[in-house]
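In this section we turn from sequence analysis to structure. A common task in structural bioinformatics is to predict how a protein folds when a small molecule is present, because the ligand can shape the pocket around it. The inputs are simple: the amino acid sequence and a SMILES string for the ligand, here adenosine-5'-triphosphate. Study the lines below before reading on.
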Amino acid sequence: MDALSCAEIIKATNGMLLSGSKDSIFNSVSTDSRNINTGDLFVPIKGEKFDGHEYIVESLKKGAVGSITEKDIKLDDKNKVLIKVEDTLKALRDISAFYREKFDIPFVGITGSVGKTSTKEMVSSVLGKVLNVLKTKGNFNNEIGVPLTIFGLDSFHQAAVVEMGMSGLGEISRLTSIVKPNIAIITNIGLCHIEKLGSKKNILKAKMEILEGLNSKGLVILNGDDKLLYGLKGLLKYRTVFYGFEEGMDYQAYNVKSLGEKGSLFEIEIKAKEYKVKVPVPGIHNIHNALASIAAGIELGIPEDKIIAGIEEFTPGNMRLNIINHNGVKIINDAYNASPQSVEAAITVLADISSGKRTIAVLGDMYELGDLTYSSHFDIGKFAVSQGTDYIVAVGENSDIISSGAISAGAETDKVYKFKENNEAGKFLKDFIKNGDVILVKGSRGMKMEEIVNQLTC
Ligand SMILES: Nc1ncnc2c1ncn2[C@@H]1O[C@H](COP(=O)(O)OP(=O)(O)OP(=O)(O)O)[C@@H](O)[C@H]1O
Ligand SMILES: [Mg+2]
């Protein structure tokens, strides 16, 4: 981060200086008192369990030059800066929005129900062939993560790729007002957070908030294979391009060929010239992510050969469809998270890479589905059977529903197993699996399905 002065922080937050000098300089911004560096500005955040205000004094002792505060606090060291604001979380947003304005570089904002992180990584890989790219670290996509991402910018960067997540209406709106993207990508409209938002239309509305911050000359990149997103065709006031497999897309993948676990190949016409693209990670969904990256790369003037090389060099994040070969067994570790859409994507990959071997889908609960909990788990059981999965091992509270769905679709009862706990499922699998098996492990983050992967690999 480039330094910010106390006067700038006061201006950005409309705060009141309670202590210290306006000329003080901050080298960085931190919300975590455990990781304070000398010269930081500490921004205390009120969480469910802790109130960051209790750590202001400690942070200053550790070397922070000053702190934001909602409360009047007496400091022993009058040289330390204290700036009073009404809401520290808003102050964090205000400071990051102010800081973002210092950078006249392209910002790519990415939202959607699933595939944000994967798309962020792929877009970064493409842009990174030519530009110095700042990207969201890991999954830092919320009201704290996005500002902290922005503070990672410095004069070295030539582009920024920022993931924006949400769990309710209004959140993306706040994030996009910080990021002010030049390019907005929406990966799809799925069922994540339907519990809170009530309907898919509301989920679409929440994702569309990303456009509120879009530059008027900006570009919207939408997954055209998503019915709700394609429904926006002709309705947006921004330049818009669609990507997908269907005819009529601006970026259309055709002649798709699976390379099994090595990924897939597809062809695409860009500016009336045909190209072959290799996606080094399996799953049709990764072709979607590659298409979004091509659209972003073209918009930012990256040469076609560099775009294609950037896709080919992509590496997936931790626990996202990682393929582990262990003692003759292939495990697809997709334990990072799960929604109906991403579970379907992963089951398709399982079928795709099995090449005739026994397939086992270890499927955990999918959270936050509200009224759709029953039907979604039932349908996942059915979907697994429709894709030819040989054995289904359902884990968690909804394991009964997954197994009922599987049996309703014709699975034999002795090929469907259900367990309440990871540990029980892990023990069963350790005895059950045989050389050559291909196993998918997937469930919501709270299910911690990596425990099963660990059991199988230790
Ligand atoms: N475009 C896509 N469409 C459907 N599924 C996808 C797509 N991209 C990735 N996935 C699947 O969804 C899982 C989650 O992907 P990813 O972490 O990229 O999503 P995310 O939107 O960032 O999730 P989160 O909301 O947790 O941040 C991956 O493991 C993969 O199986
Ligand atoms: Mg993510």
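Residues 116-117, 139, 141, 163 surround magnesium ion (ligand 2) (CB under 6 Å). As an exercise, try to locate the residues that line the adenosine-5'-triphosphate site and compare them with your own expectations.
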